[in-house]
Here is the input.
Amino acid sequence: MTSTPEQNRVFARPPLKERRWLADALRTETVGGLVLVGAAIVALILANTPLSDFYESVRDFHFGIEALHLDLSVGHWASDGLLTIFFFVAGIELKRELVVGTLRRPAAAALPVVAALCGMIVPALFYFAVNAPTGGDMNGWAIPMATDIAFALGVLAVIGTNLPSGIRAFLLTLAIVDDLGAILVIALFYTSTLNMWAMAGAVAGLVLFWFLHHKLNVRGWYVYVPLALVIWGLMHASGVHATIAGVAMGMLLRCKPRPGEEETPAEHVEHQVRPISAGFAVPVFALFAAGVGVSGSALAEAAREPEALGVVLGLFVGKIVGVLGGTWVAARFTKAELSDELSWPDVAGVSMLAGIGFTVSLLVTELAFDDDSTIEHVKAAVLIASVLSAVVAAILLKWRDVHYRRIWEEENRDEDHDGIPDIDQREEAEMKARAAREAEAQSGGDASGSR
Here is the structure.
């Protein structure tokens, strides 16, 4: 019986270069996740204390250029403006994964992609199942589809678990595919009107962006930042949500190195922008989006609304059913297998962690509904479901933490202090020995044939 290639296993350990990129990216996201959690707590405190009037007046204060349709409230500047930075980084991540990362290999990408798709479809079905029979607003079906990687990593940092790199890579891939789904959903289903002239201008700006970057090799930020602002403004005026401009520009950056390059433009820009996204843009958005009333009466009202109930069930139950079920189906009907060191309870823990749908879920809530009361109740539902998912995931993953620590230590052991983990050196030596044996067998066969 042939063994399953390591790259086709669920939670397989990524190659060393991929692990180093992963560690760098997740380190920033983890710090940002802690700031994000703090911002959400501050928002809840402000919205549920005598400071609520001051909080709402700041959030609803308008400023901007009315002639350009940019006279927005502070809350909208955060969701339409600052969150574009988050989606810009998401676009870079998606481009990298498609070009040089996990998603470029269909066999390796199949499992996390199927798991992510099921983790989006099943929660939406839960929302439909609750709202269709009760006459609820069906426009909120996309709210429970999202996974918030920053919030999830913030939870992991708080509970102090030592997840192996394979699990973290799987979780990040889930989040990237989720982001792609959210981008498509926002662009296709939450665009009410379309200004074709403004859209054409935004597309022309993106073409100019690509030409400057790929053909003229222009590197100066002073060229791209003004151009990015123009593209963002035109996208906003077109009726398509302005964050789509960020995704588009992120995906236009070059991810493959040219001769003599130590770092691609995408890597360089991502290193510069990711801390701004994780440490500032997303927390400020959360500060103005998460401030909802959580009094007993408010929660009771939310519990009676099918929209809020559908979101809670979609995130808390639908995510674990979708991700866990999708992973099992993909493993059952393909050649993929679970990594030898891990088991299905580990998949359940990550599936539960995927139920934290904070940032994008709050954004889609604002796009899906017009009624302020419904928006407040559904936002409360997103917070409740995210907290429940975080608590259950923390219990499941902490229960396995001793086992995770052993795997993590084995991955990072470097007894000769040469900067390369011993496990990678052993695998490289085994690969060379295997290649030598195959070459020797081949040469022996050729010699026998010639006789």
